[in-house]
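This part of the workshop introduces the protein records we will be handling. Getting from the letters to the tokens is the skill we practise here. An example says more than a description, so a record of this kind follows:
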Amino acid sequence: MTSVLRLLVRSCTLVVIGVAAIPTSRTSVMPRNTLPKLVVAHFMVGNTYPYSVDDWTKDIALAHSKGIDGFALNVGGGDWQPLRVADAYSAAANSGTNFKFGRVLVSTFSGENCYFGASNVDAGWQATIKDGLPGVFFLPSFFVDPTTFKQYPVADGFSNWNGGWPMGNYDVDFESDNGYLSNLGGRAFMGAVSPWFFTHYGPESFNKNWIYRSDDWLFARRWEDIIANRDRVDIAEVITWNDYGESHYIGPIEGAQPNSQAWVNGFDHQGWLDLNQYYIEAYKIGSYPSISRDRVFLWARLFPAAASTADSVSRPEKADFTQDFLWAVVLLTSPGQVTLACGPSVQTTNVPAGLAKLKLPLTSDCDASSTVSRDGRRVIDFQPNGFHFSTNPTMYNFNAFVAASP
């Protein structure tokens, strides 16, 4: 097995950004149904300024233990970032996992307007990443109408970055992916999976201040769509491991944040990492795995979407797309009674064995909790520390608080 690299396109300047594994036997274009099922997690190298090889080693070990095959390393322009990439390669090479490096799979974020001095985009990419290079497999995320994919024979497949979230006020679905898949002409496909999106930078900073609708168990629903269509999805990219600025991280909060501390600190998301493991296994083997122990996964915003604050940065765009609910995914070894509670809002549901998705309205100041009972005996009594919903926020924080029972 060898590496997958991802490429970030900034003003048509190419920057290497990634790692995962593909078969060494792959040469140029190969039918997508011959690829193994792979899962990579998008990783922001820009947040690793204080990282050492040991830090990379810990992240790789944790990701590998949850079924992730590699990191897609997003590298920016800082002259220190290639040094961190070198450390990542060193850690992976000595990790004893399948996080290995070598042959290149290139993806992009954008790049559909890059000519590189050629007469057209396809010729430009061909000359830049294919001609004279050994076995590059090109899987770009071009933001174009999928019906134009035939204009890019240089591509060995395509990635649907924006498929990870609904682009409007509706639940996530597989519609945009179908548009990609129907125009691939047998080429490979990489689908995006993401649990959340909130960014809150003012005009004096990055000037990014909006949400994507993450209600109705976005992470679970998106994974279930990917799994239902696994025969057509060759690689799943989890967005992201550590993009704190956009609130969709599933790894530990560590390294150096991009001035996102105000909405990230205290909002650990590693409960999603455990839930991710369950879905990854289903995606790879083609059926949902048996459940060996009861688990409860909870997440919610800690403040009402309609609340007003004295925040110096305005209320995020699309804030009206979200509702005030506690979202729960429950994995049960056998049927049980699941209770969700937060202050006066309490709901008990008879849940069969397997996976169930539940929700609870959040209406007043309260501490969230959940129990699972069988035959009158509590088998889970989960009261996560810090899971407090407050109706009086001091800033517009639309990040998710995530908790998972032990």
Q: What stands out?
A: The radius of gyration is 21 Å. The first strand starts at residue 2 and ends at 3.
